[in-house]
Design goal:
The structure is a single chain. Helices cover 91% and strands 0% of the residues. It has 65 residues and is an all-alpha fold. Helix 1 runs antiparallel to helix 2. The longest helix has 30 residues.
C-alpha cells in the first residue's frame, strides 16, 4: 500500500512539473524569445518544480516520522 502511494505521488509530481515546464516554455515563446531560450526557461521551471516537490516531501516526512 505504501509503495503505491509513493509511486502515485511521484507520478503526480512529475506530471505537475511537466505541465509547469510546458506552460513556461509556451509563455516564453509567446513573449518573443528564441526557441533555445524558451527551452532553457522550461527546463529551469521543470527543475524548480521538482526541487520544490522534494523539499515539501522532506518536510512532510520529517514532520510525520
Amino acid at each position: 500500500m505504501i509503495v503505491a502511494i509513493v509511486l502515485l505521488a511521484t507520478v503526480l509530481a512529475v506530471a505537475l512539473a511537466l505541465l509547469a515546464a510546458t506552460a513556461a516554455g509556451i509563455l516564453a515563446r509567446m513573449d518573443g524569445s528564441t526557441i533555445p531560450a524558451s527551452l532553457t526557461r522550461a527546463a529551469a521551471t521543470f527543475a524548480a518544480v521538482l526541487t520544490l516537490a522534494c523539499a515539501i516531501a522532506t518536510a512532510v516526512t520529517a514532520r510525520i516520522c
